[in-house]
Design a protein that fits this description.
The chain is an alpha/beta fold and 343 residues long. The chain folds into three domains: 198 residues, Metallo-beta-lactamase, Chain A (4-Layer Sandwich), CATH 3.60.15.10; 42 residues, no CATH class; 49 residues, no CATH class. The chain is built from twelve helices and 15 strands. A seven-stranded mixed β-sheet has the order 1-2-3-4-5-6-9.
Length: 343
């Protein structure tokens, strides 16, 4: 290890615990979400909806806002911005298309231009009409007619039925279930391949694409260079392990994406979940992934099973991280599955 893991505890760690990813069902079960705004650096603020975060920077000419989160939160936020600052949102900068970060932007469309990675357009499009139900939804189609009506829907599909039902006909098809609960995600007006930069009243925000193989293939980090702040959602967490390690690509692709974020040179990291802290915590997160990769790979080389590895791997340097004990075994199993998979 190149550094001592006896880090100071991140800011407000007892108030909010960050996560990498959040299911549709989890978010909807908190109807009494706390809506808050707090200053981070200069004229840049963090706004929170329960476990979800976004950031915005204020100028005399308008506001640049990152992820809008959802419609109810955006409606509240728009009123707060008008009351506190008296200037409109000029740009909405998406980190990625997932519903629990990107919904609700239409609240600002009377004044704002929306910016997202070019892959976001495809993610918001409807799949072919004959698309089969994903595994999580297949069992809900009790009569096999290719439609899930409200009475059949369960879990996230029930809680967010209207966000899945693209054509509003009162049923969710395989294509709609596969697309996801995206009806409240407003498509970007401007798209980019590698980077996009906007300026309002002297404030700048820069979106930087981090690569196709992290949490989704339209993921970007948003950097506010004047305030030296970076905002990232889901694929990096601060002072905690990932909630899960996705297996769609080699782990080195994810690590490479984290290095893209490190290379941006900002001083403060703000996560789409949880806390904000010194940017060095982005590096610590990468080092966690690297150490876990190496230790699981060594076990595989010795012929150890997942159960063997879960019994033997304890990464003491990270034991004080939030949810380390909770996620330790699943992180090991996820890493094993990635390292033994053929790509």
């Amino acid at each position: 290890m190149a550094h001592n893991k006896n880090y100071k505890l991140p800011i407000a760690v007892t108030v909010a615990i960050g996560i990498v990813g959040c299911s549709a069902e989890e978010e909807q079960t908190d109807p009494a979400a706390n809506y808050t705004i707090e200053p981070i650096a200069g004229d840049l603020y963090k706004a929170s909806n329960a476990t979800h975060r976004t950031v915005f920077v204020v100028t005399d000419d308008g506001i640049i806002l990152a992820d809008p989160i959802n419609r109810d939160f955006s409606t509240w936020l728009k009123a707060e911005l008008d009351s506190r600052f008296g200037v409109p949102v000029r740009y909405v900068m998406y980190t990625h298309h997932h519903w629990d970060h990107a919904s609700g932007g239409a609240v600002f469309e009377d004044t704002a231009t929306f910016v997202g990675h070019e892959n976001m357009i495809g993610r918001l499009a409807m799949p072919p009409g004959n698309t089969a139900f994903p595994a999580a939804a297949a069992g809900m189609d009790a009569n096999g007619d290719g439609r899930i009506v409200m009475e059949e829907a369960e879990g996230a599909y029930s809680a967010n039925f209207g966000l899945f039902d693209y054509d509003g006909d009162g049923a969710i098809t395989g294509a709609e279930a596969t697309r996801g609960p995206l009806n409240d995600v407003r498509p970007p007006d401007l798209t980019f391949t590698d980077t996009a930069e906007v300026t309002v009243g002297g404030a700048t925000a820069r979106s930087v694409y981090v690569g196709a193989h992290t949490h989704t293939d339209d993921m970007s980090v948003i950097v506010f260079p004047n305030e030296s702040v970076g905002f990232m959602a889901d694929f990096i967490s601060i002072y905690r392990p990932p909630r899960f390690i996705r297996g769609e690509a080699p782990i080195d692709s994810w690590i490479a994406a984290v290095r893209v974020v490190e290379a941006q040179g900002f001083d403060i990291a703000v996560g789409g979940h949880g806390n904000h802290e010194d940017a060095e915590y982005v590096t610590y997160f990468r080092e966690y992934l690297e150490e876990l990769r190496d230790r699981v790979a060594e076990g595989i080389e010795r012929g150890q099973s997942v159960a063997d590895l879960q019994e033997s791997i304890y990464m003491d340097d990270y034991a004080e991280w939030i949810s380390y004990d909770e996620f330790r075994e699943s992180n090991i199993a996820d890493m094993y599955n990635i390292l033994t998979r053929e790509f």
